[in-house]
């Protein structure tokens, strides 16, 4: 009997762990098929990244191309279930006042809150969308870099297979006062999302 059950363990263990992560926060899988609360298992060769700002437009996305949906306006369980059925990740928006996470203890609390929020909704990571002005050599600049490292470490350890991304300006040259440590942040997260759509003529 042992030899027959053993091959099933690699298949069952991720499902049990993923279900437990939501249920321990008081959430049950909202999908009609429980396996749809599992994170996508495939790593895409490229990313087609969608920022979802509410409504039901997601029903008309080209799901043969979409790889990640960042939820920027209200969690939609139906969207999460459907995205997972198409092999796409669903991630939450991470936005915080940088000054509020300069202190390590406050930063750790914020990071853990985001992990637990993602777990309770069976989400697959976080998109850090800060966009705050940060000066060179400031405490906020160092805190932002630390936030990227600590968020990635927490998500990767507590939600295996999760994705952590960071939105950046189209240029690293302190656009709109965002003098971030771009190389260090790029090393910390899974990838940067370059907001190349936000290029005012005055900055060119």
TrEMBL record:
PANTHER family the UniProt entry points to: DI-N-ACETYLCHITOBIASE
Family indicated by similarity: Belongs to the glycosyl hydrolase 18 family.
Any Pfam family matching the protein: Glyco_hydro_18
Domain of life: Eukaryota
Keyword Signal on entry: yes
GO cellular component, one term: extracellular space
Positions in coiled-coil regions: none
Keyword set, alphabetical order: Glycosidase, Hydrolase, Signal
Protein name (record): Chitobiase, di-N-acetyl-
Gene Ontology BP terms: chitin catabolic process; oligosaccharide catabolic process
GO molecular function: chitinase activity
Signal peptide: 1-22
Keyword check for Hydrolase: yes
Domain GH18: 1-204
InterPro entries linked: GH (IPR017853), GH18_Domain-Containing (IPR051887), Glyco_hydro18_cat (IPR001223), Glyco_hydro_18_chit_AS (IPR001579)
């Amino acid at each position: 009997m042992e030899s027959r059950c053993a091959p099933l363990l690699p298949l069952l263990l991720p499902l049990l762990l993923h279900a437990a992560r939501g249920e321990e926060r008081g959430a049950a899988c909202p999908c009609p098929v429980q396996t749809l609360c599992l994170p996508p298992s495939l790593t895409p060769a490229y990313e087609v990244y969608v920022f979802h700002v509410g409504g039901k437009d997601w029903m008309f996305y080209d799901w043969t191309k979409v790889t990640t949906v960042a939820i920027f306006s209200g969690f939609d369980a139906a969207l999460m279930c459907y995205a997972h059925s198409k092999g796409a990740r669903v991630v939450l928006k991470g936005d915080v006042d940088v000054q509020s996470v300069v202190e390590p203890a406050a930063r750790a609390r914020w990071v853990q809150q985001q992990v637990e929020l993602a777990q309770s909704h069976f989400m697959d990571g976080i998109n850090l969308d800060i966009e705050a002005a940060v000066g060179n050599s400031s405490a906020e600049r160092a805190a932002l870099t630390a936030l990227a490292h600590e968020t990635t470490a927490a998500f990767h350890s507590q939600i295996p297979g999760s994705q952590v991304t960071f939105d950046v300006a189209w240029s690293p040259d302190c656009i709109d006062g965002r003098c971030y440590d771009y190389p260090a942040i790029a090393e910390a997260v899974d990838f940067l999302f370059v907001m190349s759509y936000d290029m005012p003529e005055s900055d060119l």
